[in-house]
Write a structure and sequence with these properties.
heterodimer, A: mainly beta, Porin, two-stranded antiparallel ribbon, B: Rossmann fold, Rossmann fold, 2 domains, globular
Chain lengths: 438, 306
């Protein structure tokens, strides 16, 4: 009762202070009392209204949450009773998790749910020995690759790989993937490494070597490789025997020193057909055929000739893998080979340059791998010059997240003295880097 | 010639006939496949990606698995990041909206199970290959098996409401078999409650909690890190101090270090399959526990350890 009176007094005070004081309304105490009564009625009505609304809301909420969960039925396993949190509204169905989420250590996890997976992979390279043709720095923080990967919406995901070299930053790849288009089309849009063979699609840190084979350097633009802005469509070709995937890609036509688009119409095209078959549960074979066509940079200096010269590239890749399932973390072998034919039209005439590499990597202990590689390739712009080389490598994996690698490389250049080098590499990864395609 | 090419293209392009009737279920492990088979009976076809005798953390993302996922109506995963190293690229390339994370056919079997070893506080990889959302080997507790089966039955019924009765029946039969088995297994292990053991990887916390084993150490110094000499010496000393007479190891690890630990401590090393299909006797979920419990009890009896 006392509270009510105090409230009234407060209301009166408010009314007195706030009201713009029309003097006439306050002339008699009776008028004032009437006004107070009116205010009191209004206030009671308001209180009632809000009370009702609140009750209705509460009952709605209870209904929405469903029946209270059954009492936990696992008395014995109490230590592991998992704390969970509800998925934030909107996360379900957006490619996000559904149901309840585990609470990771700190409450901050909830605020990170929609952040992309972020990882950084460091690639430190060292070189010793003599190479007068293509010398490597003695010590270099060769590349730091930052990756950002997340689901965009129920229809697509996005992957960005930003490479920080010692001199600058480069968008290695950045693309949108539509994962669920009708007709089984896996479509990518953005900047990508072209689906030409195997090594061209690989990032530095998943190569089994410290470098890229000579044939990549001579015919496919080296480390940057065939990578460009474009659209890619891949489809599985149904058949009862093997995994067969056809990929078609259209690019702007600017790719390292391989393709140069002098005008917007000079787009380049890449086609890839991949067949895969499990020979046994432990062994499998992976075969690919690739084709790329685009305009090259020769004749750019002359107006009439710019954009008239094209390069056609043909590739065959084969990978044989063996990994016994029962000892899958201790033993494995991967044999790879790629052959590339380059047909480059240029003012001096057509240059038909070919190249290949063959390699084998054997895992002989849980953390140890030994590898060997043979290289041979002509040069794209002058097919009469052929370089060749051999490499031996040894890799140690302290954990899944780091690697130490040593590689001895001997390169016989068409012009210049033979190079003998010892290369070593530290690879290390922090954060949540997504798994790589097979 | 042109016609031939068009006909060829049309044939290749034709969408494979959509599977009607039977639900096509793909699971990541044989344990989930075994449970799904009991629940779904003849209303489903089920196939597992990883074999029971391989390390489920390290499965190769082979393109042939993409084909399985492409045709799947339902994908059941163990979750808790067990498959993080290989499943995402397979799902992304599956071109199947149903099995994408959060899709209508995607089921994370861990959501209602009792999960142990959920790390608290800050996590770093200095701790090894830790699973931030808890130990993913949770299926090795029959109570969790029943919860997984319930989730699977719910998912099946959601996708095939007409077969709900069959799935409910399958679930009830499976639950009854597990209940019956659990009585048997608990009775067999009851006399040996508190037996101290060492395991290779952290694969058995749920099993140990259910059947009263006391895990005092691991052959791995940290999850996913291979044994180191110093850790092995420390472990041997600790085992001697606590008189540990049993080392449990998963079939897919190298037995060299466990055997040398066994020789130094007089402990017996037993290869205990953590999964259906791990050895040929473990043909289904019930048989897995029958086998493991018998193996364990026999070994405890032999060693006389308590």
């Amino acid at each position: 009762m006392r509270a009510k009176r105090a409230l009234c007094a407060a209301l009166v005070a408010c009314a007195v202070i706030v009201a713009p004081l029309p003097a006439a309304a306050q002339e008699t105490p009776q008028a004032l009392r009437q006004e107070i009564d009116q205010l009191r009625r209004d206030f009671e009505a308001l209180k009632q209204q809000y009370g009702d609304r609140l009750t209705a809301l509460e009952s709605k909420l209870a209904a929405a949450e469903g029946p209270p969960p059954a009492a936990p039925e696992t008395p014995a396993a109490a230590p592991g009773a998992s704390p969970t949190a509800q998925v934030p509204p909107g996360a379900e169905g957006a490619g996000g998790p559904s149901g309840s989420l585990p609470v990771y250590g700190a409450g901050a996890a909830a605020s990170k749910i929609f952040n992309p997976d972020i990882a950084v992979i460091g690639d430190f390279l060292g070189a010793a020995g003599r190479n007068q043709v293509n010398p490597s720095p003695s010590l270099a923080m060769h590349e730091s690759e930052a990756s950002f990967q997340a689901v965009v919406d129920p229809y697509a995901r996005a992957d960005f790989f930003v490479a920080f070299g010692e001199e600058g930053v480069d968008l290695e790849e950045g693309f949108l993937t539509f994962t669920t288009l009708p007709g089984g089309l896996l479509t990518k849009v953005g900047r990508m490494r072209a689906a030409f063979g195997k090594v061209n699609t690989m990032h530095n840190h998943i190569l089994p070597w410290t470098d890229r084979p000579l044939v990549m350097t001579n015919l496919l633009g080296g480390e940057e490789g065939l990578a460009d802005a474009g659209i890619s469509v891949a489809r599985l070709i149904p058949n009862p025997w093997i995994f067969l995937e056809a990929t078609g890609q259209l690019y702007r036509g600017d790719s390292s020193d391989v393709f140069t688009a002098a005008k917007p119409g000079n787009v380049s095209a890449v086609g890839h057909l991949r067949g895969y078959h499990d020979l046994t549960e432990s062994a499998n074979i992976d075969l690919g055929f690739s084709y790329a066509r685009g305009h090259n940079g020769s004749g750019l200096a002359v107006d009439d000739l710019s954009g008239t010269f094209t390069t056609n590239l043909y590739g065959v890749d084969a990978t044989v893998r063996w990994r016994p399932l029962r000892r899958s973390i201790y033993r494995s072998f991967v044999g790879r080979s790629e052959v590339i034919w380059s047909r480059r039209d240029q003012p001096g005439g057509l240059q038909a340059a070919n190249g290949l590499y063959v390699s084998g990597d054997y895992q002989f202990a849980r953390r140890w791998f030994a590898g060997v590689r043979g290289d041979r390739s002509a040069r794209a712009t002058d097919a009469s010059l052929t370089d060749s080389g051999q490499s031996f490598s040894l890799t140690f994996w302290p954990s899944e997240f780091s690697q130490l690698r040593g590689q001895y490389r001997r390169t016989k250049y068409a012009l210049g003295p033979t190079a003998n080098e010892f290369l070593f590499q530290f690879l290390f990864s922090i954060g949540a880097h997504g798994a790589h395609p097979f | 010639m042109k016609h031939v090419i068009w006909v060829l293209l049309a044939t290749l392009w034709s969408v494979p006939a959509a599977a009607q009737g039977k639900l096509n279920v793909v699971t990541t492990t044989e344990d989930l496949a075994a449970i799904a088979r009991e629940v779904g009976g003849d209303r489903i076809t089920v196939e597992a990606i990883a074999k029971g005798y391989q390390d489920p953390h390290f499965v190769e993302a082979k393109p042939s698995f993409i084909l399985k996922l492409q045709k799947a109506d339902i994908l059941i995963v163990v979750g808790r990041e067990l498959e993080i190293g290989w499943l995402p690229p397979l799902v992304q390339q599956s071109r199947n909206a149903k099995v994408q994370v959060g899709g209508e056919g995607y089921l994370d079997a861990s959501l209602h199970a009792t999960i142990l070893e959920i790390p608290a506080g800050q996590l770093t990889r200095a701790m090894g290959d830790v699973h931030p959302s808890g130990n993913p080997h949770y299926w090795l507790d029959p109570e969790n098996g029943k919860k997984i089966a319930k989730d699977i039955a719910d998912k099946f019924s959601e996708r095939r409401p007409n077969d709900r009765a069959a799935f409910e029946k399958g679930l009830a039969a499976f639950t009854a078999r597990v209940d019956e088995g659990e009585k048997r297994w608990l009775a067999a292990t009851a006399p040996y409650k508190g037996t101290k053991v060492v395991t290779y990887h952290r694969s058995f916390p749920n099993f140990a909690a259910r059947f009263g084993l006391d895990i005092v150490g691991y052959v791995e110094p940290k999850p996913g890190i291979p044994p180191s000499p110093q850790h092995t010496l420390d472990l041997i000393a600790e085992m001697k101090r606590q008189n540990v007479k049993l080392v449990l190891m998963e079939p897919y690890f190298d037995s060299k270090t466990p055997n040398s630990i066994g020789r130094s401590t007089g402990a017996e090393v037993i290869v205990m399959p953590p999964s259906v299909g791990g050895v040929k006797e473990t043909t289904d979920y019930i048989a897995l526990f029958d086998y493991d419990v018998k193996l364990l009890v026999d070994a405890i009896k032999r060693s006389g350890a308590k």
